[in-house]
Amino acid sequence: MPESRVTAQQKKAVAERANGCCEYCRSQARFAIQPFSIEHIIARSQGGETVMDNLALSCQGCNNHKYNKTEGRDPVSGDLVPLYHPRNTLQGNLRHTYGKKSGRW
Question: Which domain holds residue 62?
Answer without folding.
Answer: 8-94
